[in-house]
Amino acid sequence: MRAMATLTENRPDSRRIVVVLTTGVLLLTVFYYFGRPAFYNTSGLPDWFEARIGGRLAEYPGVLAYAYWGVTSIVLRVLVPLGIVVWVIGARPAEFGFRIRGVMVHAWPYLAAYVAMVPVLLWASSLDTFESYYPFYRQAAEGGLAFWVYESGYALQFLGVEAFFRGFLLFGLAPVVGRWPAIAVMVVPYTMIHFGKPMPEAFAAIVAGFLLGWLALRSRSFVPGVFLHVAVAVTMDLLVIWRIS
To answer: Whole-model pTM?
Structure first.
């Protein structure tokens, strides 16, 4: 047993696994407690920001919580993992899916996935569980500034989701444990962040996690997944707003 432990500790790949998974769970925990709108709304930050920004945003109490959500997602899910990639693991960002060049040739499966999702979104938006859940910020249904501030924060949050799950975790593990084991490991926490949402969405996250993971490794980039994720989420919001208006 001791010899096996020593062998594992001495393998260079084991360090990468430990760094990726340990960083991952720490960032997930910090983001859950300090990065979400619920923390912003109870932290005293609304009074501080609104006193300095004021203007028309004062007409939409709570909307800045979603801008905060987007910014913390960028910091904790994009910038901190990038720092770990470069300064701790010693890899290039492109090796972790931070790649734009050449990804357009892989865009068609993402477009096909979106087209396939539209009928599902039409059906889901008609259900009470989804209609009462989306959009998260109900005043976004009024359109105008409230809609754009909310959706901008929402979109930034998805950039963080894809960079973290389909970038840092997936590309961090795949060269060591293999493609499908890495996807499976990534799907576990990805599905868990959907707990509390409508049950069909939580189960759909399992399928989406595997599909987006496979597509990210195929294109060597998580970037197209950002556009797909944002498109699906905004479409759901718009369909619900259309139904309740």
So the answer is: 0.92
Q: Are 211 and 113 in contact (CB under 8 A)?
A: yes
Angstrom CA distances, 152 to 12, 155, 184, stand at 41, 5, 30
More confident residue, 185 or 60: 185
Confidence class for position 4, pLDDT limits 50, 70, 90: very low
Give the Cα separation of 67 and 22 in Å (integer): 27
CA distance 23 to 47: 32
Contact (CB, 8 A) for 25 and 188: no
Higher pLDDT, 46 or 196: 196
Q: Which residue has the tokens 């432990």?
A: 5
Residue-wise pLDDT tens digits, 86-136 = 999 999 999 999 999 888 888 999 999 999 999 999 999 999 999 999 999
Q: Which of 73, 86, 83, 92 is nearest to 31 (CA)?
A: 73
On the CB side of 128, how many CA atoms lie within 13 Å of its CA?
0
Distance (Å, whole) CA 82 – CA 21: 14
Residue found under tokens 């360090």: 15
